[in-house]
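lol so apparently i was supposed to do this last week
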Amino acid sequence: MEKTSTPTHCPYCALQCGMNITPLPQGGVEVTERADFPVNRGALCGKGRTAAEVLSPAVRLTTPLVREGGRLVEADWPEALDRIAGRLAATRERYGPDALGVFGGGGLTNEKAYALGKFARVALGTSQIDYNGRFCMSSAAAAGTKAFGLDRGLPFPLEDIPRTGCVILVGSNLAETMPPSLRFFTELRENGGTLIVVDPRRTRTAQQADLHLAPRPGTDLALALGLLHLVVAEGRTDEEYIRERTTGWEEARAAAMAHWPEYVERITGVPVPRLREAVRMFCEPEAAMVLTARGPEQQSKGTDTVGAWINLCLATGRAGRPLSGYGCLTGQGNGQGGREHGQKADQLPGYRKLDDPAARRHVAGVWGVDPDSLPGPGRSAYELLDALGSDVRALLLMGSNPVVSAPRAAHVEERLRSLDFLAVADVVLSETAELADVVLPVTQWAEETGTTTSLEGRVLLRRRAVAPPPGVHSDLYVLHELAGRLGVEKGFPTDPEEVFGELRRASAGGPADYSGITYRRLTEENGVFWPCPEEPAGTSGAEGADAASSAVSEAPAASDASASVRHPGTPRLFLDRFATPDGRARFVAVAHRATAEEPDAEYPLLLTTGRVVSQYQSGAQTRRVAELNAAAPGPFVELHPRLAARLGAAEGDPLAVVSRRGRAVAPARITDTIRPDTVFMPFHWPGEGRANTLTNPALDPTSRMPEFKSCAVRVEVVPRS
Ligand code: SF4
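anyway here it is w/ iron/sulfur cluster bound
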């Protein structure tokens, strides 16, 4: 054990709650809440409170494994690394660099995400890299970029929420996903503000709302258009704002006016009076916000759906103004930073575009390579997984468990099995690692230092608090060793601060500019909001700085002499101008369309999927924590009493949920908090109750997000044997 108590952050969701880790004399560590971190102010959910259990060698990997005679057996590091490098080199030699795939994760630190993107493009020379964050927030990112010229989950800190007048929370169940964040909404209501929740289920979050709108899954695009129609019809638009700060209103207005409230009621099932009530609650206060999460985003029209909600904000003058705006509640721990620094198929560090010649020149200059040597954009996450075993023959996977978390998971599992070679670096032997030819045991949150970027766009330092078990190395070490074996001796340091220094240079002048952020600052401050260029605010932008940097709006005053030469970071974006070339936000004209798979006679119901409070994502870590498993031991099928009666199902009966992609079985949980035409399954478990066996990989044309949130199913009672 290295020292007494270390302030750091939770390994799980994008709230990145502050916690202290204290080694105990008898062994193990104690996790306690940090009251000084403004996001959780001394609260942790059960996942964060028990996170240290996954540090135990009893549940995590401590030795490399290699496949021999069909079984994974223990090996030493040189043997495992030699085997990976040898197979990657042989595959590249035989099939070319794009036969090599790399799959990352939204839980990787910024340093790891950066190094992984560089490794793919420089050490392997492949374009075939993407990550599981594509399944998280990509539709909101695409819609935000279209409308504002920049995507940062929240363009304001969470602490603004209690001071606004109304929040519409769309497809987010914070009571299960980020419980400490509920405090901001409780304070909003205590201050006289109102909360509207849009969710097909009356979730624990919806139960706290002043108004709950429960549309059919996959119809919230129509819902947003219906609200905008009423805003126009009732004369509640902000014409001056529209004139001064936006473009594209006439087309968006015409599209919305085609969505009459009665038509929207027929599509969504939300009665017109409730639509009118929502418009009144949203428009009457001075300021208001719309926050989306996976509900509207994980659809084959997710980008348009989020765009429709943004249009509602723009038409009412509720974006880029104090205490108003649109934001996305990013899910994974580093879902925000993970998409900014190069592990996404189309991006380079600093949120630059891989197909932008100036961006390629800048990053290639930092990397010391010829810009022409950098591959172009590759496949999106599901498309990459779908190509395994055919175009992509070998895969290196870090920090992801697609056997449980990918849509059409049985097919993805079969694709993984069909690979010539699979290498996985992970903390635990996940369901995906079990399929690998080589498994590398790597360090995790409390055992390593690195930065993450929270859903607020706040860059944070997670500090090493304990030594890893013997035989465990960091992902940065893995990339360093593999690059060396592949003939790239330089450019892959193992020290995270050195990697961050290079990331700062690579991001300088880009939309997500981290160049003014240092580890030292992050130890002194409770995080720094990007963009944060190296020079202080008000001096000229870095060479090549684009509209994003100049979209800096409200920065806190420097508090001391040394801080006066620092850029203070950017807690609030867009107050003066948006990050588009003309500084105006862009309406996008969108229209309702059906989900990719509507119910029919054979599959008459809709399945929607989501989370429970005691498990996280694919459950690879949290399913190894006894307390969490006791609270949430397995999957279930939530259904309405009327549907249960029609099926002849009683509480706890095994139900088979069948879609065009497969069959999952889990016990019935009967509740009137769900629509009678919809069933719900949480997606944290493998095996016969795996919800993602059923989900539909139909992709959004812009974001390439699969349609996790809606597919057609039938439900059958399984006779008990
Ligand atoms: Fe960790 Fe998220 Fe729970 Fe906070 S809310 S303790 S960040 S899992």
